Amino acid sequence: MHAQTDCTIVGASFAGLSCATSLARAGLNVAVVEKKADPGEKLHTTGIIVKDAIDQIALLDSLPGHLFRRVGGVRLYAPNLRHIDLVAPGYYFLATDTPNLMRWLAAQAEGAGAKVVCRAPFRSAERIQGGFDLGELGTTRYLIGADGPNSRVARSLGLGTNSRFLFGVEHEYAGLQIAEDDKLHCFIDRRVAPGYIAWVIPGVGITQVGLARRIRPRQPTPESALSALLEKIAPVFDFRDQQPTAVRAGMIPCGGLVRPVAGKRILLVGDAAGMVSPLTAGGIHTALKHGLAAGHAVADFLAGRRDDPSGWFVDCYPRFRAKRLLRLAFDLFQSDLFFNILLKSRPMRWAAGIVYFNHKGVFDPTAATPLSETSLVSSPSGAEPPG
């Protein structure tokens, strides 16, 4: 690829593809370069989209129905496996067919006029008059780094890089149906998932079982950590005899926005910018929202209507101040005994409202039952073929 572009975006990510779509719709010559052979392969995200994103991001208005299933609430389990159900009237989550969602987003960018080039790794960038020389990738007037938590664009051009991470690993089980499949099932356990949570998610044609945890010296391997999770949740969902059809794994930045996040004619967006909630590890909503906005800002600059957005646009990036404090508190004071005792308390309801529903959540006290009183498992295996 030897081309001249108005803007080159490195990374066919949620942020990169949404940014490309808004730039292309503005009539600019834009290319997305991606080192993978397919935007939908080797994903590192669970793929949950919150209702706020559906409400705010018009790009998702035409999202095909076969790419998602609607999930209405959260079942939160204490370490002793007692649980509460958390709901918010009118609120929901979308569990997605994430590989095909990424392919759909790439098609939206291409339909708007962007060029998406796979098997095109970014290697380096050299500043030239009016932009960058990207070697075999050509030249560009503006560069967007949307290439993940270990951004090569950031390292190449001396921008900030992520330094604090969670590590996430997830199994996918195809053709299995779980009971209570209208909920995201979230498990708190300091031994299995220190610093974060584990989950069972009824996805699109699959069930997703995973965890994220702080990175520690001499920690268990991802597979052994997941094996410990499967043993832990077996009284509720027993997947121990099931073979996963796919595995997702990767680093999740949890330190907040990197510094600096921009330079002359260059912006970082999405995970590359650290634009991931330090508390929830959710980044799809902000990636889409700020990716689209970055595209508009760069388009205005290249058309001569505004100054370089690296000098002003990044002021609108989320700083996650409250969530960084809650992340610190969770890291320092996570206690299984605390969660066992206080699962149904007012402070727990308040915290859950922030984490899951952005303060919109309410507690359903009728669902707070001991494990022995629940009926979550419809077969001895905890999962059964649909139908």
Structure description:
The protein is an alpha+beta fold and 387 residues long. It folds into two domains: 4-65 and 96-163 and 254-321, FAD/NAD(P)-binding domain; 68-89 and 165-253 and 329-373, D-Amino Acid Oxidase, Chain A, domain 2. The chain is built from nine helices and 19 strands. The strands form three sheets. Strands 1, 2, 8, 9, 10, 11, 17 and 18 form an eight-stranded mixed beta sheet that branches. An eight-stranded mixed beta sheet has the order 16-12-15-14-13-5-6-19, with helices on both faces. It has a three-stranded antiparallel beta sheet with strand order 3-7-4. Helix 1 packs parallel to helix 3. The model is unreliable at 360-387 (pLDDT under 50).
Strand content: 25-35%
Radius of gyration over C-alpha positions, nearest whole angstrom: 21 Å
CATH architect. name of the largest domain? 3-Layer(bba) Sandwich
Q: What's the number of structural domains?
A: 2
Q: Enumerate the spans where pLDDT stays under 50 for 5 or more consecutive residues.
A: 360-387
Span between N and C termini?
A: 49 Å
